[in-house]
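quick one before i forget lol
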Amino acid sequence: MLHNQYRSMAILMLAIIAVGCSKEDLTGALDKAKNAVSENATKAKDAVQAKMESTTEQVQEQLNLAGSIELTAGDVVKTDACYVSLIPQGAGRPTVLQLQSYRDAERESFPSVFLQAHVQANSITELVGEPLAARLFVQRVAEGPILFSDVDAPVELKITAIENNLVSAQLTGSKLRDTTTGAEIPVTGSISGVLE
C-alpha cells in the first residue's frame, strides 16, 4: 500500500518538474505529497491496530466460551477449558453430570481433568446449590501419575450458578489418591464450564 503511495508521489514530482514550476510551487507540491503520504500511512496504521484489537477481543471471547478449571491438589492445576454435559442414561438409571477439560478424547491436553457424578435431575438448573458426590480424575502431564477420588470417598461438588450457558461450581473438602505413591492429597477448586 505504501509502495504505491511513494510511486504516486514520484510520478507527481516528475510531472511537476516536466511542466517547469517555480521553486515555491515545487516546495508546496512536495509538502502536499508528503502530507498525503503521512495521512494515508496513519490511516493504514489505525486500520491495522483496530484489526488487532478486534482479533484480541475475539480470542478473549473464545477463551471465555471454553471455560476453565483451577484446582489445588498439592500444586495448583489450571486448565484453559471446561465442558459440562448432562447425559441421560434412560431405563430408570441416574443421569450423568460430566465435566472435563477437553471437548473429546482426541483433543485431550494436559493438565487433564475429568469429573463425573450420577444425579437425579433432568435439567442442570435442578442441581444448583445441591452438594453432589462425584468421581474426579486429574493428570498433570501425559504419562504422569493420576490423582483420583476413591469410589467410597467421592469429592463434593456444588454448582453455584448458571448464566448464559456458563456453569460455575466449587469443589470442597475432598481428597484425591496418587496412583504412584498411594498418598492422599486434599483438593479444592473452582470450575467455570461451558454447558454443551
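fyi The CA atoms of residues 93 and 103 lie 24 Å apart.
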